[in-house]
Amino acid sequence: MSTTPKLAALIAALVLGVAAGAADAKDKVKVGFIGPLTGGVSVNGLGGRNSADLAVRLRNADPKSKYEYEMVVLDDECKPNVAVQVATKMAADKDIIAGATHYCSVTAIATVDTYHKFNFPVIVWGAVLPDITYRNKYDEVHRVNGTMINQNDANAELISKLGYKTIAVIHDTTDYGKGHNEYFSKALAKIGKANIVGTFGVTADQQDFTAELTKIKALNPDVIYFGGLTPIGVRIRSQMDKLGLKAAFDGTSGIVSDAYIQGLGPLAEGTLAFREGAPAEKLPGGKFFMEKYNAQKYDNPPEAYGPFAYAAMDMILDTIEKVGPDRKKVIADLANVKDRDSIVGKITFDDHGQNTVPVITKYVVQDGKFVEWDDSEYASGKRKLPGQK
Amino acid sequence: MDAGLLAQYVMNGLMLGMMYALVAVGFTLFFGVLDVIKFSHGDVLTVGAFAALATYVGLHMLGLNSNWLALVVMLVAATLAMAFLGMAIARYLVLPLRSAPALNTLLITLMLGTVLRESVRLFYPQGANPKPFPALLPRASIDLGEFNLRLDNVLMLTAGVLVIVGLQYLLNRTKLGLAIRAVAQDEETARTMGINFTAIVLVTFALGSGLAAFAGVMNGLYYNEINFGIGLYLGVVGFSAAIIGGLGSIYGAILGGFLFAALQTIGTVMLPFASAYKDVFAFAVVIAIMAWRPTGLIREKISERV
Question: Residue A202: beta bridge partners?
Answer without folding.
Answer: A172
